[in-house]
Amino acid sequence: MLIASLLRIITLIRKELLVILKDPRSRASLIAPPILQCLIFGYAATYDLNTVPYALVDQDRTTMSRDLVAKLEGSGIFERVATLTQTGQAVRLLDTKQAVLIIVIEHDFERQLEAGASGTVQIVADGRNSNTSGIAQGYVNTIVRDFTSDWLSRNGSRDNAVRVTTRAWYNPQLETRWSMVPSLIGTITMLMTMMLTAMSVAREREEGTFDQLLVAPFTPTEIMIGKAVPSMIVGITQASAILLVALFWFRIPFSGSFLMLYLGLSLFLAAAIGFGLLLSSIAANMQQAMILCFVFLMPFMLLSGLMSPTDNMPEVLQYATMVNPLKYAINITRGVYLEGAGLNALLPDMLALVAIAAVTMPIAAWMFRHRLN
Amino acid sequence: MKEPVNRPERGLRGALRRIRALIRKETWQLLRDPSSIAIGIVMPVALLILFGYGINLDVKNVPVAIVMEENSGEARGLASAFELSSYFSPKPAKTMAEAETMLLSSQVKAIVRIPSDFARKGATGSSEVQVVVNGSDTNTARLSLSYAEAAVGIWAAKEASRQGTAISKGVTIEPRLWFNEANDSSYFLVPGLVVLVMTLIGALLTALVMAREWERGTFEALFVTPVRSIEILLGKTVPYFMLGLAGLALCVVGSRFLFGVPLRGSLLVLTVVSMLYLLVALGLGLAISSITKSQFIASQLTVLVTFLPAMMLSGFMFDPRSMPLAVQIITYIFPGRYFVTLLQTLFLAGNIWSIILPNAAVLAGMAAALLALAVRMTRKRIA
Is A315 on the interface with B (CB under 8 A)? Predict the structure, then answer.
């Protein structure tokens, strides 16, 4: 009985793999996109700024204001696009996006500092992308703080004397790419496998072959397994391809165990495929399956911690993140890849994934049969 | 069928009549399918809510372990500076080892260590504070570091002025954020949403619908009718064009009334440039579907060349200025780059023609090229 069932499942898997792999375009669409996506995301998804074009309005024109400017430009990040005498002239540069910041050193900057008051630097930033301007302002703040404490210590003051030594675990240079690329393993494979699974069932439904499957001597569970395993194989292959890009192209050091990573990824793929199957059991055709996938994928991606931490989200949305397999996948991949986390630390995430798979898959199997009418 | 009973009406009137009939048929099909309502209405609303409330790039209440290795007044003062800051939610740890365990198990995201010689060294002006962060979430780590540095700096300055040792107040920075005085990230995320919604409706939905026609062979069936190929294309795309505009309207209304994002440019210009982008997206969807002729491959390709670039390479979430030069050049291939620039400027800055005209011109050029390509490819298949 069990053996017969197993044999039936294997036939299904073979047939499914044939469908996916026989068309060379479909083959290419399974491997090329994940690698391309990983490369593009890896380079594009960064909050680090390499250059900040700015307009300088130095109303002070003293040694000290020039020192400050030298310090700014010595960082290699600030690129002066214009030197002006009045803020009003700089407005156009900001409007037309030629500059991100206008830095105004007010006219009695040096005098005020030396008189024991405080010298004022104004920063006007382009808030159209408040994230960029926030980061650029942060850079100015750091440089100005360094400048101030240098000047103070040269003049024998001891305020600002507390030195802050900083250290970042797991990512010493704090490169965005290091946390982004491992998270992409989960994100990209979810995008691909959920669509693949949902579309494959929907295609059969559209072509009418799904009904044939249902009347053939397969139980819904067998059909479900037969659909899930090929997607799983594809997902693991894609994950490995992305992992290779992370290791050998981006050269991000791997500090965990591959066994843990693959265990976590398998559970995650089971959960993601479970969702794909569930959606495909609701959808009547490929278009509906695809759109349903997107309706779910977008929130999954946005509420996963990929782009912004989940802890900052409003409480209602935090509850919503609990059913999001990608959130757990990102915890696991970042944990294993960067932190070298072990089973103890990852167990809650893994159990959550098991729970998601255990709920979605049986419902999907049940729906396969009951959606008919 | 060789001798059609009704000869096709010639001239503009006939064309219009045929197009109208096709539009009616396609609109019915669109309205009957719940999935188009899902993508045209549910999706924009869900995205508005997610981007408006869910995505917050700022960091607040970072759990931080405070290790006080001495119990001096200075150390307690510094610790309370962290407690008062809204950026941190401190948790006490007795030893550094305990704090490191907390960091390892993700109970905290940062450690602030006040060493045992803090007050003594402070008297000679050489005291030190150590801050350790978990770098696996880079953005949070970087923000926590700079907030921690700022908190220590502010405390030190207060301390110095309390003791009267300060010879100067140092440099004050007066930041001002133009176009977005409240420094609200929904100000730039929510307008940017329009690009996602339009891409999904324009490119993805169209590619799927058209690929289905190719896959089922119903396209060829249309070809033997008196309808001309350009009429078919018009009839097919007009309903999706309207759905895209409905998505735009939802986004504009939502961003205005839900999130208070100003619309400083003119609504007319916004509508015109959105229409241009929608045409580009439709053109892409049509071209992809007639190249692939398969719903599965068309959907994969559309996601890869339209949706992902619109999200990642358009400047909507990530600023192209941060990208390596090669990637920056690639961003200019994709229409989303021009549209996001237009959206951010029109919503937050106003009608700045030196930005609007060149970007709109590029979109218009792309739309013309892609639509011409789509028409040509459809015609070629008839022959």
Answer: no
Flag if A178 and B308 touch (Cβ within 8 Å). Answer: no
Answer whether A127 sits within 8 Å of B180, measured CB to CB.
Answer: yes
Cβ B140–A309 below 8 Å, yes or no?
Answer: yes
Q: Of A154, A185, A215, which marks where a domain is finished?
A: A154
CB contact under 8 A, B188 and A127: yes
Cα A190 to Cα A239, B40, B62, B251, distances in angstroms: 10, 23, 29, 27
Per-residue pLDDT tens over the stretch B246-303: 888 988 898 888 888 888 889 999 999 999 999 999 999 999 988 888 888 888 888 8
For B146, the closest of A127, A138, A158 (CB atoms) is: A138
* Chain B residue with Cα closest to A148: B170
What is the tally of structural domains in chain A?
A: 2
Alpha helices in chain A (DSSP H): 2-22, 24-44, 63-74, 87-95, 109-114, 130-154, 176-207, 209-215, 220-244, 258-282, 286-302, 315-321, 325-334, 343-370
Asked whether the beta carbons of residue A165 and residue B344 sit closer than 8 angstroms, the reply is no
φ/ψ of residue A281, rounded to 5: -75, -20
State yes or no: ipTM above 0.90: no
A65, A69, A164, A180: which to substitute to probe chain B, counting the most B Cβ within 10 Å?
A164
Q: In what order do the strands lie in the sheet with A163-169?
A: A163-169, B128-134, B110-114, B62-68, B88-93
Residue A3 within any structural domain of the chain:
no
Q: Are residues A222 and A361 in the same domain?
A: yes
Q: Is A48 on the interface with B (CB under 8 A)?
A: yes
Domains in chain B (CATH in brackets) are 16-55+185-382 (no CATH), 62-163 (3.40.1710.10)
* CB-closest option in A126, A148, A298 to B171: A148
Q: How far apart are the first and last CA of chain B?
A: 18
Q: In 10 A of CB A49, how many CB atoms?
A: 19
How far is it, in rounded angstroms, from Cα A370 to Cα B244? Answer: 34
Please answer yes or no on whether A127 and B179 come within 8 Å at the CB atom: yes
Given CB atoms, is A338 within the 8 Å cutoff of chain B? yes
Residue A170 lies in a domain: no
Domain residues for the domain of A317 are 8-45+175-370
**Radius of gyration of chain B, Cα coordinates, nearest whole angstrom:** 29
Residue B383: the pLDDT is: 42
Q: What is the pLDDT of residues A319-357, one digit of tens each?
A: 888 999 999 999 999 989 998 888 888 999 999 999 999
Global confidence as pTM: 0.83
Given an 8 Å threshold on Cβ–Cβ distance, is A178 in contact with B35?
Answer: no
Using one digit for the tens of pLDDT, what is the confidence trace for B44-61?
888 888 888 877 666 778
Please give, rounded to a whole number of angstroms, the shortest distance from the CA of B9 to a CA of chain A.
Answer: 34
- Shared domain for A106 and A148, answered yes or no, is yes
Cβ B312 vs Cβ B318: under 8 Å: yes
